[in-house]
Each structure stands twice: as structure tokens, then as C-alpha cells.
Write a structure and sequence with these properties.
With about 45 residues, this protein is mostly helical. Helices cover about 85% and strands about 0% of the residues.
Amino acid sequence: MQTFIYGSYILVWPAITLGMLGMISYAVLRDYREAKRNNTDLV
């Protein structure tokens, strides 16, 4: 049982990282589209 808990703990971090990367990518893409639509710079 302890191995299962440790394994789950280790495997949850890639899932959290992937979720955060997805959120950041979505936000950047949304900002890029808005800047393109308003004809302004992204930075």
C-alpha cells in the first residue's frame, strides 16, 4: 500500500505540470489573438 501511495504522489506532479502548462499556453494564445485583433504589440 505504501508503494502505491508513493507512486501516486510521484505521478501526480507531471499531471499538475501539464495542466499548468496548458493554462499558461491558453492564456498566451488568447492574449496573442487579442493583440492581433486590436493591432497592438503583445509585449
